Amino acid sequence: MKSDKKYDILIIGAGVIGCSIARSLSYYDLRIGVIEKSSYVCSGQSKANGGIIHAGHNSKPGTLKARLNVMGNRMFPKFCSDMGVEFKKIGMMVVADKAEKVPALEALKAQGIINGVIGLRIIGKEELLRLEPNIAPSLSGALFIPSAGMVNVHRLVIASAEHAAVNGVDFIFNNRVRKLMVEDDKLKGAVTDKGKFYSKILINCAGTESGKIANSAGLKGYSIIPRKGEYYILDKKYRGLVRRPCFFTPNPEGKGVTVFPSSNGNVLFGGNSIKVEDSTDFSTTKKDFDQVYKKAQKLVPGIAGKEIIGAFAGIRSTSTSHDFIIEAPHKPSGFIILNGIDSPGLSSAPVISEHVTSLIKDGLMDLRKDPNKKHTYKIKPLFRELGPVEKELWIKKDKRFARIVCRCEEITEGDIVSAIHSPIPAETIDAVKFKTWAGAGRCQGGFDLERVLHILSRECCLPPENITKNGQGSNVVTGKTKVGL
Amino acid sequence: MSRTKQKYDIVIIGAGPAGLAAAISAKENGAEDVLLIERLDCLGGILQQCIHPGFGLKKFRLYLTGPEYAKKYIDSFLKLKIDYLLDTCVLEVTPFKKVLVTSPTTGLKTLEAGSIIFAMGCRERTRANLNIFGDRPAGIFTAGTAQRLINIEGLMVGKEIIIL
Predict the structure, then answer these.
(1) Model confidence over A45-79: pLDDT tens digits?
(2) For residue A426, which of A463, A467, A386, A394 has the smallest C-alpha distance?
(3) Same domain, B73 and B20
(4) A residues 181..240 contacting B (CB < 8 A)
């Protein structure tokens, strides 16, 4: 199916940045399209985000990262509650492994204060152990950062995208941008796998591919240094092992290995930073695991390698300057590029989307609010999040909320059916998983995969062999066992 | 399936071979009110997907498939008119032996039990659990999931297969 489509604004990439920009712009009288190469939102760099909302102490004063992170952090509670997504302000610890590292904590604190982070406090060993009883008793002290927090990044991105979709934004999935079209120093649109898309303004939020896409418009100097990070998920019986993200004092490569409680009740460890050539290499490796595990154990000795239920890797898209690049070049005009939005990109998302809106207003296009667009939208809660009275009501309306499909995470058939028929339909096994958390628990889909497959097949009116894990070529089963009988 | 009461002498969670045997034994040994709870929509548990023979050699001196072996237990169980719930998941068991269940037929329901027998089998270990590194493509299954897809659902998991 190849057809030419016309939009006022085209956004490339449906990660946290693309979706929050789409949401912010969806209030205006505009035709907006979001092009995403994967089959669902939050499938690139954002997918492997741990959900830590940083305070802003870690970036060099004066950088865009420092400024936007601190502002984004302040906006985060409302940003989340507006969309019905839980935000937990649990704080963060940066721990010194030896007494010599305590001055580094002081420097970090001073940097945080310059950046505008409030509540920073150096704590001694005793208070550290009181706040984090399972941390290694040999550690010397920590910088306590109370304004840091935790969010379910998938729910957040999905909620932003759904809000945008409810306001009429088109999401075009399974569509890769091949190159941008420029005419008379003006950006005209994008050539994609699904035809040409024309737009007055094009916003490049393509994460690890943002440099490549900018280059295709004749712009030089934008590139990405891909850095891989691996994470390991511990069984829920380790819930409470740490109460907030704990890091060692940062090294030149980044914030280093962390142990943190996820929004779903698991403790995770990981977050190493390895420069890689291939920005599509999401493999986990024994070598990196051994290093990450050793460091994590130094921080929290109670971590047991045998109790890992899942592992994943993600690629950070670091710019060559190590800072965020958000700009509208003069030539070609009509182009906004977001390059190098790695950590703290999620924490900065609420302000980045506003920043981009102002960039458009400041010389690219007049924006007019559309009174028909919804300013509030809340993501439908999961059945397990409800109180007992609401649970009874939901079951009365739809009996499928009384059937548990994913036992580990207590996700019901009703949750899965709702996800499939939501404003951004979750039509793959992974989309259902990231929307509902079915299959993300202790058995990692061992029990529920077949049921989710069955529900997807029924609801999408497709044979099971056409259902994929995450888009083309990732079919779960090949066909029926008995054919031609 | 019979209507469930509010209170049972014995509640058994899981209608696999262990749960069925426990229910039969409890009833035969004088327990009045016994309830068997199963989250699948049929009795027999994992046996239903084990279609290879080799079951029942000791017990019945027969060379049976999983479903055949399960049927022997299911028949004795049904003969005893023991209450059971299918398509029902236990959400919580309290220290005071209250059992919170959910199913499309019962909705959320709390039952009281004199004694509770846990016969839920086990979960298979995940690939991360076994420290298998690499990518995470579609088409990697635990033995049990593959067995269920092929033997119960009639769906083929692949044409070229590696078993680790």
Answers:
(1) 999 999 999 999 999 999 999 999 999 999 999 99
(2) A467
(3) yes
(4) 232-233
**CB neighbour list of residue A472: distance below 8 Å, 6 or more residues apart:** A39, A174
Decide the pairing of beta strands A141-145 and A121-124: antiparallel
Q: Which residue has the tokens 């009988």?
A: A485
Burial class (CB in 10 A: 0-12, 13-18, 19+), B28: exposed
Q: What is the DSSP string of A165-226?
A: HHTT-EEE-S--EEEEEEETTEEEEEEETTEEEEEEEEEE--GGGHHHHHHTTT--S---EE
Query: Could you please report the per-residue DSSP string of A211-223?
Result: HHHHHTTT--S--
| CB B138 within 8 Å of CB A470 | yes
CATH of the domain at B12: 3.50.50.60
Test the A interface: residue of B92, B106, B120, B126 with most A CBs within 10 Å: B126
Which residues have C-beta within 8 Å of that of residue A253, sequence separation ≥ 6?
A227, A273
User: Is the peptide bond between A146 and the residue preceding it cis, with omega within 30 degrees of 0?
Assistant: no
- Is B1 within a domain? no
Please check whether residues A251 and A353 belong to one and the same domain.
Answer: no
- The whole-chain average pLDDT of chain A stands at 95
Residues in chain B: 164
* pLDDT for residue A169: 98
Does the structure's ipTM exceed the value 0.90?
Answer: yes
What's the DSSP call for residue B43?
S
- Residue A114 sits in a domain whose CATH number is 3.30.9.10
pLDDT at A1: 47
CB pairs under 8 A between A and B: 120
Domain span at B49: 7-118
Q: Whole domain around residue A401: which residue ranges? A: 383-466
Residues A27 and A81 in one domain: yes
**Cβ contact (<8 Å) for A464 and B139?**
no
Supply φ then ψ for residue A107, to 5 degrees.
-65, -40
